[in-house]
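Z., the sequence and structure:
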Amino acid sequence: MNILFLTIGRFTSIEANSIYADLLRCFRNFGHEIYAITPYEKRNGKKTELVHEKGAHVLHLETGDVTGASNLIKKGIAQMSLEPTYIKAIKQHFSDVKFDLVMYSTPPITFSKAVEFVKKRDGAKSYLLLKDIFPQNAVDLGMITTSGIKGLIYKYFRAKEKKLYALSDYIGCMSEANLKYILDHNPEIDSGKVEVCPNSVEVIDRTVDDEMKSKIRAKYGIPQNKKVFIYGGNLGKPQGVSFLIECLKSQEKNEEAFFLIVGDGTEFGKLETYFEEANPTNMKLMKRLPKDDYDKMAGACDVGMIFLDHRFTIPNFPSRLLAYMQARLPVLAVTDPNTDIGKVIVDGGFGWWSESNNLEKFIYEVNAALRSDFHAAQDKEYRYLLDHFTVDKAYEKIMRHF
């Protein structure tokens, strides 16, 4: 089949290691021809470029700044402009290709006209990889409201969301809670076209031996004799950084643990201020590293952490879980009660969960982690990864429809 994939997720090459590149590479390896459109955002200063790789054609398309939340109005306008920009790109670069399947991921929800264009032009089927539920996530975090002036923004994007669902022949949700939420809040959707198709990866064993672990820790100034809890990724409003800081404050005198925070985002400055003022001796804050360097450093740690703002009513399921699982790091999830990521971790026997407004429970779970048998958790975790989150399983789930 000729498959078109639309995303605002960045990947430099289909050979890269990421949830989208891994999945597309799986499709390619099963004999499908892959066409993908991914943005070169304006702030990066790059021009549109079509790259031909073995069995894949990746169009890096110049767009507005569609990610990041430093300027919500600018971001919103950029996302609204995606439909005509992507349609124009399809006409210009892929006019001679008849697509059999168009796949696309949220965010954003503003792909509906581009999807509709390909479906009408080519008679293609469509599959939505639902990674984000917008605009409700913005409502949860107080960024927009359902009434007043900002309510107009909500109604516009809510209509876009519903149209995208209606256009999708199939919708793959990240988890059972994710699926239930979509059906409960969109009763017009045929439940037969909605299924669980979770984040997935081409599994790479990212564990490191003791000698390498010692070298990596020495390189980054990480203690050799402590259990290292790492958080790596975005540090924005969805992560509930204010509560993350409260969690760190509660551990300033913990002599057994070391806390490593790596990333960037709109709330990074709050963490910088905390580290400058408190100067904690058992913690370290670092800016985002190149992916390969981060993966090696994560492999030298002991526990991976996930944080989500307590206000979320939508069930998020962060893909960073997979990075921890590949490094065989048991996971401490600190989240709202609506996501089922904590249930997956606890029921799977490879981690701990605390609600992200309960500091006492967080402290308890840190201590529980310090007393745990990591080897047993690591074995269960890696088996769970192989059983549930591999790209070949996602490929089979999608392709059974076609």
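The first strand starts at residue 2 and ends at 6. The chain is about 40% helix and 20% strand.

Let me know what you think.
H.
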